[in-house]
Amino acid sequence: MTNHWVDIKNTDLVLIMGGNAAEAHPCGFKWVTEAKAHRKARLIVVDPRFTRSAAVSDFYAPIRAGSDIAFLAGIINYLLSNDKIHHEYVNSYTDFSFLVNDAYTFENGLFSGYNAEKRNYDKSTWGYQIGEDGFAKTDPTLQHPRCVYQLMKAHYSRYTPDMVSTICGTPKEAFLKVCQMIAETSAPNKTMTIMYALGWTQHSQGSQMIRTGAMVQLLLGNIGVAGGGMNALRGHSNIQGLTDLGLLSNLLPGYMTLPGEKELDYATYIDKRATKPLRPGQLSYWQNYGKFHVSTMKAWFGDAATVENNWCFDWLPKLDKPHDILQVFEDMNNGQVNGYVCQGFNPLASAPCKVKVSGAMAKLKFLVTIDPLATETSEFWQNHGEYNDVDPAKIQTEVFRLPSTCFAEEDGSLVNSGRWLQWHWKGTEPPGDAKSDQEILAGIFLKIRDLYKKDGGAFPDPVLNLTWKHKIPAFPSPEELAKEFSGKALRDVTDPKDPTKVLVKAGEQINGFAELRDDGSTACGCWIFAGAWSEKGNLMARRDNSDPFGIGQTLNWAFAWPANRRILYNRASCDPAGKPYDPTRKLIAWDAGVGKWTGSDIPDFKPDSAPEEGMNPFIMNPEGVARFFAVDKMNDGPFPEHYEPFESPLAANPMSPNNPVARACPAARVFKGDWETFGKPDKFPFVATTYRLTEHFHYWTKHVKSSAIIQPEQFVEIGEELAKEKGIDSGDHVRVKSNRGFIVAVAVVTKRLMSLTVGGKKTHTVGIPIHWGFLGVAKNGYLTNTLTPFVGDANTQTPEFKAFLVDVEKV
Amino acid sequence: MALQSLDITARSATTTPSPSARGEAVKVAKLIDISKCIGCKACQVACMQWNDLRDEVGTNVGVYDNPRDLTDQSWTVMRFSEVEVEAGRLEWLIRKDGCMHCADPGCLKACPAPGAIVQYANGIVDFHEENCIGCGYCITGCPFNIPRISKKDNKAYKCTLCSDRVAVGLEPACVKICPTGAIVFGSKDDMIHHAEGRIEDLKERGYSKAALYDPPGVGGTHVMYVLQHGDQPELYANLPKDPHISPLVGLWKGITKPLMSFGVGLAVFAGFFHYVTAGPKKVEDEEEAKS
Fold it and tell me: Which of A113, A582, A774, B147 qualifies as a cystine partner to A384, CB 3.0-4.6 A?
């Protein structure tokens, strides 16, 4: 979230799209009800299904699963053509005026630089015109035909209300009503919040859906303000912490990135990431990349990391390609993986195309699962009748099941959607032989280190030199780990302006990432968490909910990254002169008297930079402003464009009907052999989408009696019209099949899944909740990912679980 | 249950006067705002956890409602209704069903087992199962079809409004758990006042018939609803528009009271029970035929 849960109470309008907050985030949803009750806020829900969020909404608009970019692009077109934008905001704080490279083009559904054979783009034309002074050229009058504003206006003029209705199936009047309600928040004293989740991420164009939503918010001036923002609702309680700590295959902690296989030179690696300002007077905060990187390497390798060996840069893996979950199972399926350690993860249930995942795991020599529960993955080799019909005799994979504690059985911190690191305390002792994850991993690590010590090996250095200064080596405590990621001074850290002034003494915990250095004098396991555990103690454990400004900015409750800042980009809540656009929801303002930015939040800005200096609010971008034109940051185009899901009821993309390459996302990766597994609408005529129910959490709570009681048995949802066509009554059993397999479930026939007219054709949607499997106390069922396609987002590789094709028949 | 005998103002099938040493108690109420309810069923789980009850893991019969109905183990269930009050505008109305705690409780009036059903000074109607004889007449007496007889011990069960929690100054478990504040609890006066604010908000959002459900036919209730469509309570999974205690219960009380005073044993009534429990509908028809 750019903002945080409590802040939602400050909004005037809530748009829930690509998510279902009332069902999937019921506790956080209370802030929506607060905004409704105390600010007369309105709630809009746009979703293929009339959800429990829709049940308490003021306006609901149906949409075909997978068509969200068209809907949002239509809103952009509406805002631009009806002049419902926040002019001062977009002119000052975005790239509206930046001039784009003359060679950049968009034609027939494809951006310049497309390589059809490799299915990727050469992004060299997706950039700015750079002047002789090294800065990006701009035209503040916005008249230049190559300025971002003009290019964007032309790009999105194609998304007329009629086109939106054709692609999305949303009735035109409903779409326009949503546009009108949203447009009202372009007023400087009105704001909208967007709440989204997996309904946007789990598409072959998920990242671009989120970008389009962010573009709408930027046009309205709703980023950086109280009650605004782009608010990603995280599902697992610590999935935010997972990405923060860099547990994705291409990341280092704090959203730093691993070098690619061609990046063998340390200085070049740092220079590329420590971006210089692209406009005069801008901060470009990533210039400090080297300090964060070196401090991480010092945390990992201690004294072994020296300036002479480039802080052990050579020890970092150099990526040949992304090694995301789809890639790993592809490699496994091709027999290229011997062993797989599966920690807190149930891929047989959670990864797409069960038959492929199951087959891949059968090719492993060994599989280790670390989990509090008996997962389907750990029993993938066992025959569970119709729900897992495999022959154990043919599977030779050795499976080790290591029982771990769950969150309530351990101390530690969890990062919530609002980036708050909240310490929690053990509620009960773990059952049986369950051990904490750090104890299990420490055990494995110490054993492997001993083996390397004893027997040597091809590349022992990083294992032998890994920092391991725990009081009990076999049990690194949560407190020790938390202090390590927050960071400490290895030598005295002095003030760069006054070297006689010591900021942090050697051995002390640092106060924040501004104290990190690239000379080896600091160690910090995750720079964005810096200061969470300072000499003041464990700030994550703070529980003071006093709210001195009355807008939910409880700065003494836990710790928010970065720097305990609650709302990102908060400088943008003020006009260029430093006055809040809405004084009743003031976050910060320029206080000329003290020469500082002050207010209810930690400024997301250089705290003493006066407005006259012209520094802009988006300090992480070298431009200083927010980007509508993504330059080379996205794999599938600098402007979001609608493409059909890989499995779609339409034969062509209505946006570029004559170009088959531009039907589905042209830059999404598809593995050899998977094209054949995609179904076509002649055999699989219905749009399917998978989702969660409020009664259950993923595949966990089917093990919980009370959850099993309130939602006991697998079902699928079918609209009344389709049910009538197929002769299906509520309570009947139906078979739902895709080109990859089938499931059988009870039919819930409902008015809440409406049939839509898409591309002139009647289109039905089948809704498929995910929670059942072949283990647990709920009624056994089929794993729904039997049905889903093995393809992901062009940028993140998040699988396309939300839009694919099925057929339905009564059993 | 955990309220003291001093707090009892009415008991089933008894003519012994209730204790009156204590003064008037504040009347409590639970207010369920259906316009804020997201149907998460956390209240169902809180109820089963606080009261230490676990229903069967059932089946799905083609709806979201689970367990399918109230049982001796499930004292509250969510009832989901898909309606189109205005053509083309779908609404999904989700009503938390359970005991309404009537000010004039039909169950208590109908109950022949001395002290099996009591009413407290704060308005809570509670079952004391140790005195229950399992005759099921509370079900006949209830205009909301709430009590359920356990197959295990043949006794009647229903929501206690967490009388044990309320007795020590806590809110009912369902109120505590509700994530959106759709269920609130306090004095009945405060709840009526709170409802007025909610109704004003709903009217401003276009629900011109929004209203409080506190039916006078049963003397008002200590569980009340805010309804978006106050003029059509039956939209909400057949919530009765104008509930009354069955006239049969009045008839029964008329006969039993004098009988009780003569101290006649329960066995004497057995035949009569059999006659009346044959079904209220049939009896009502007979009543109508007489008039």
Answer: A774
**Residue A567: inside a domain:** no
- Confidence at residue B253, expressed as pLDDT on a 0 to 100 scale: 62
Beta-sheet pairing, B77-86 with B89-97: antiparallel
CA A198 to each of CA A76, A203, B162, B231: distance values in angstroms, whole numbers, following the listed order = 22, 9, 38, 39
How confident is residue B288, by pLDDT bands cut at 50, 70 and 90? very low
Torsion of Cα atoms, A270 then A274 then A275 then A276, to 10°: -110
Q: Which domains does chain B have, with CATH numbers?
A: 5-102+161-235 (3.30.70.20), 246-291 (no CATH)
Do A170 and A221 share a structural domain?
A: yes
By 3-state DSSP, what share of chain A in percent is helix, strand and coil, each rounded to 5? 30, 20, 50
Q: How far apart are CA A111 and CA A637, in angstroms?
A: 6
Alpha-helical segments (H) within A252-404: 266-273, 289-301, 325-333, 347-350, 354-361
- What is chain B's percent helix, strand, coil content, to nearest 5? 35, 20, 45
**Do both A771 and A697 map to the same domain?**
yes
Q: How many structural domains comprise chain A?
A: 3
The answer to whether residue A215 is domain-embedded is: yes
Give the closest of A26, A29, A55 to B92, CB-based: A55
pLDDT at B273 over 50: no
A216 and A248 both lie in a single domain: no
CA distance A149 to A152: 5
Taking CB atoms and an 8 Å cutoff, what residues of chain A touch B91? 55
B234 interface with A at CB cutoff 8 Å: no
Beta bridge partners of A799: A792
CA B185, CA B161: separation in Å to the nearest integer? 10
Mutate one of A20, A706, A746 to test the B interface: name it (highest B CB count within 10 A). A706
- Looking at residue B89, the DSSP 8-state letter turns out to be E
Whether A15 maps to a domain, the answer reads: yes
Domain boundary at A511, A528, A561, which? Answer: A561
Q: What is the CATH number of the domain that holds A171?
A: 3.40.228.10
User: Is B56 in contact with A709 (CB distance < 8 Å)?
Assistant: yes
Which range (A295-299, A620-624, B112-116, B265-269) has the least confidence?
A: B265-269
Q: What is the pLDDT of residues A145-179, one digit of tens each?
A: 999 999 999 999 999 999 999 999 999 999 999 99
Residue A705 belongs to domain with CATH number: 2.40.40.20
What pLDDT does residue B256 have?
A: 54
β-partners of residue A522 are: A489
Q: Is A353 among the domain residues?
A: no
Q: Looking at the complex, does the CB of residue B88 fall below 8 Å from at least one CB of chain A?
A: no
The percentage of chain A sitting over the pLDDT mark of 70, rounded to a whole number, equals: 100
Closest CA relative to residue A780, chosen from A380, A389, A387: A387
A interface mutation test: which of B32, B35, B40 has the most A CBs within 10 A?
B40
Residues 6+ apart with CB under 8 A from A531: A486, A487, A510, A511, A512, A513, A539, A559, A563, A564
Identify the residue whose tokens are 């609002």: A418
User: What are the φ and ψ backbone dihedral angles of B131, each rounded to 5 degrees?
Assistant: -95, -5
Contact A715, B60 (CB under 8 A): yes
CB B78 within 8 A of CB B96: yes
C-alpha to C-alpha distances, A616 to A144, A181, A569, A626, A728, nearest whole angstrom: 22, 29, 10, 9, 59
Examine the domain organization and report whether A214 and A264 are in the same domain: no
A804 in the same domain as A677: yes
In this complex, which of A30, A706, A714 lies closest to B179 when CB atoms are compared? A30
In chain B, the N- to C-terminal Cα span, in Å, equals: 41
Range of the domain at A791: 660-810
Q: What is the ipTM of this complex?
A: 0.95
What's the token pair of residue A479? 């407190």
Q: A483: burial class by Cβ within 10 Å (0-12, 13-18, 19+)?
A: middle
